[in-house]
Design brief:
Elements lengths: L1 H6 L6 H11 L4 E7 L2 E6 H18 L6 E5 L4 H12 L3 E5 L5 H11 L3 E4 L2 H9 L9 E4 L13 E3 H10 L1 H14 L5 E6 L9 E5 H14 L7 E3 L7 H14 L2 E4 L6 H8 L3 E3 L2 H16 L3 H22 L6 H22 L6 E4 L6 H9 L4 E3 L1 E3 L4 E5 L12 E2 L4 E4 L4 E5 L6 E2 L3 H7 L6 E9 L6 E6 L4 E2 L5 E2 L1 H8 L5 E7 L6 E7 L1 H10 L7 H5 L2 H19 L9 E6 L19 H7 L1 H9 L3 E9 L5 E12 L14
Parallel strand pairs: 1-11, 3-4, 3-5, 5-6, 6-7, 10-11, 12-13, 13-14, 26-27
Antiparallel strand pairs: 1-2, 8-9, 9-20, 15-16, 16-17, 18-19, 19-21, 21-22, 23-24, 25-26, 27-29, 28-29
Length: about 650
């Protein structure tokens, strides 16, 4: 620990790193934001002044040390500044998911007792006002975008720029107090509180210290040789630990530039314009982009399509080896170079990935086929395994040792052990302090020696020392015959197909597996358009006979692949149903980070699961849904149950071992 303290001596908080960056990288870009089609830019020197003005304004407003300041909105420099300003005054920033409904916000704001809330716009302000009477500690709200806010009662409402102006006006009077508070900050001070996604219950407030954030940022940046010259696009939810460590922790440690898109709709255009050198995305982003590529190739001319598939097949054969520096024959290298000029290079530029030096995916397991596709193009995409409670990093993949079926080796300064049940435990400088106001959960997750139980099952490979994740420990089970049931393995294979958005496998304790499938409306809608197939709704398209037949062929292909794995061949899909609605976070079926809440889905669609197992050919069901404005309604549907072809496989009997 002494060595760790020395490693970041004098830089033990985000405000301290900000001061260093303002001095060392004064005129280098710190933030860019696209607004009204034009990129605005702030240097590190300008950023430090903006944050100081806001911090002084917060003191002027009455923010005390130890207060919780909630921050809600899309990725904008001002909201990132708010997190650093809150820490500068000794308060604790608590970012919330901007797409959370009012009642979800009520729980988090009430649980942490936020006295102050900073919101991006009128939409977020309205949600807080709607639940204001439930928040006994709430005192003031600051809003960034003034549009639509003029006629509100401004007794407790303040415009962001006005708070900064008041801070500047009170500079001489309050700067001493701000400096005193900043000087107190050290490695043990709280840096941020992030709420877990809550797959199994209410979200928990994960308290992360400066040691957790600064040391994790330092170690990971050194591991991947990140420099002050990196450019990243910050578009993932600010409430997610991944965004916090990349867009704040590493950005402040390295001093690189954070770019914020204009909106979710312009994200892909903005990504191409920025051309990030360092990129992070959950699997769903890479899956969605691959789907769009495949859709566009279907619309291309015959020659272009043939060339695309020809060079793609070659990339699949040698691209990964070339990227990892393994020996590849001269002719194969020349053909790959030609493919790079004609296909791979233009495709990477179209995706916005042309300059990526290091790319990461995490949050959920990515399908091997999707992972290999990007690496075959020459994109250095790697997996990491992490948690909010670990300040992201548990394992990482060293360059030259990147594989789709493992998550790499322990990250710098991380220790990992596997218990007798196969559950993964770790401890590291990133290990969280506690769950806020929840000593029972803290004690059950982190033991007295600092070891944290991840809830994931896995094992270390002999020889390579790489960690393989089987699944969530609570989701791994056994089939009735004793063979292993690991749903994620099969679901990720299904999601490789562009027309499958989501898949949920069932079969624990049963004699066979069945599945729910969500179609990708973009991909399947494009197919319908090309084939002159009219449809009025998602439900109608999902039940179309040709769609069901297409999905059946995908399931058959996946079964063929699963049958080849002796340990998991019992997980082949025997029957499936294409659901009449997309699984949705607003309906409680997924978390805000798009992880399936299995238990809720299982309970909610119990009638469909019963029909899948009892031999029914159809099932009629009624499902409650939540509309965007919060109103509830219901949809009725009669779903067709489809039988899939199951391949013979050598079933590995876990029970018999």
């Amino acid at each position: 620990m002494a060595q760790m303290q020395t490693g970041a001596q004098g830089m033990q908080s985000l405000p301290a790193l900000l001061q260093r960056n303002a001095a060392q990288f004064a005129n280098a870009p710190a933030y860019r934001e696209k607004e009204f089609g034009i990129w605005q830019c702030w240097t590190w020197s300008e950023t430090a002044k903006e944050i100081e003005a806001l911090a002084l304004g917060l003191i002027n407003l009455g923010v005390k040390e130890g207060d919780f300041v909630a921050i809600i909105g899309r990725n904008r420099p001002y909201l990132y500044w708010s997190m650093v300003a809150a820490q500068a005054v000794g308060a604790v920033p608590v970012p919330l998911y901007q797409d959370a409904v009012a009642e979800e916000m009520a729980y988090v704001l009430g649980h942490c007792g936020a006295r102050f809330v900073i919101v991006g716009d009128q939409e977020q302000a309205d949600k807080v006002i709607e639940i204001q009477d439930q928040l006994h500690q709430f005192e003031h709200m600051i809003y960034l975008d003034p549009r639509g806010m003029r006629k509100y009662d401004h007794t407790q409402l303040h415009q962001f720029s006005h708070i900064q102006d008041q801070g500047r006006a009170a500079h001489d009077e309050l700067i001493g107090e701000l400096n005193k508070r900043q000087t107190k900050l050290d490695y043990d001070s709280t840096c941020v509180m992030l709420y877990t996604s809550g797959t199994t219950g209410k979200p928990k407030g994960v308290v992360l210290s400066n040691r957790n954030v600064v040391q994790s940022a330092k170690n990971s940046a050194e591991f991947d040789h990140l420099t002050q010259g990196e450019n990243i696009l910050s578009y993932l939810p600010m409430a997610w630990v991944g965004d916090f460590i990349f867009s704040i922790g590493q950005a402040y440690w390295c001093g690189f530039c954070v770019n914020c898109p204009e909106s979710q709709d312009t994200m892909m255009t903005d990504l191409r314009e920025i051309g990030p050198t360092y990129f992070f995305a959950p699997p769903r982003v890479f899956e969605g982009q691959l789907t769009n590529v495949m859709i566009r190739m279907e619309d291309a001319g015959a020659l272009k399509r043939k060339m695309f598939h020809h060079f793609l097949a070659h990339a699949k054969k040698v691209g990964g080896d070339i990227l990892d520096g393994r020996p590849v024959g001269l002719m194969d290298r020349l053909k790959y170079a030609l493919g790079n000029v004609l296909v791979y290079g233009p495709l990477k530029d179209t995706l916005g990935y042309g300059r990526i030096r290091v790319g990461y995916t995490a949050g959920e397991a990515i399908g091997p086929e999707i992972f290999d596709f990007y690496r075959s193009l020459g994109i250095n995409l790697k997996q990491l395994y992490g948690q909010t409670e670990a300040t992201v990093f548990i394992t990482v993949q060293p360059d030259g040792e990147v594989r789709a079926d493992t998550v790499g080796v322990p990250a710098p300064e991380v220790e990992i052990k596997i218990d007798d049940s196969g559950e993964i435990h770790y401890r590291s400088p990133g290990t969280f302090v506690e769950y806020f106001n929840n000593p029972e959960s803290t004690a059950s997750t982190k033991d007295a020696e600092g070891w944290v139980a991840t809830g994931d099952a896995g094992f270390f490979e002999e020889g390579s020392g790489h960690l393989r994740i089987i699944d969530r420990a609570k989701d791994v089970g056994k089939m009735a015959d004793g063979s292993m049931f690991a749903p994620k393995y099969v679901e990720n294979k299904l999601k490789f197909y562009p027309d499958i958005l989501e898949a949920v496998l069932f079969g624990n304790g049963r004699d066979r597996c069945v599945a729910f499938i969500n179609i990708d409306l973009t991909a399947v809608g494009n197919w319908a358009e090309r084939n002159n197939i009219a449809y009025a709704s998602y439900q109608e398209l999902a039940g179309h006979p040709q769609v069901l037949e297409s999905i059946r062929s995908h399931v058959t292909e996946v079964n063929k692949s699963v049958a080849e794995d002796p340990m998991l061949s019992g997980c082949q899909v025997h029957r499936f149903v294409v659901l009449h609605k997309e699984l949705d976070a607003d309906d409680g079926e997924m978390t805000r980070t798009r992880k399936v809440r299995r238990r809720i889905v299982e309970e909610k669609f119990d009638d469909i699961i019963t029909a899948l197992y009892d031999g029914s050919e159809q099932v009629s069901t009624v499902t409650e849904v939540t509309y965007e404005d919060g109103r509830k309604g219901s949809i009725k549907a009669t779903l067709t149950i489809v039988d899939a072809e199951v391949k013979p496989g050598a079933v590995h009997k876990v029970a018999a071992e």
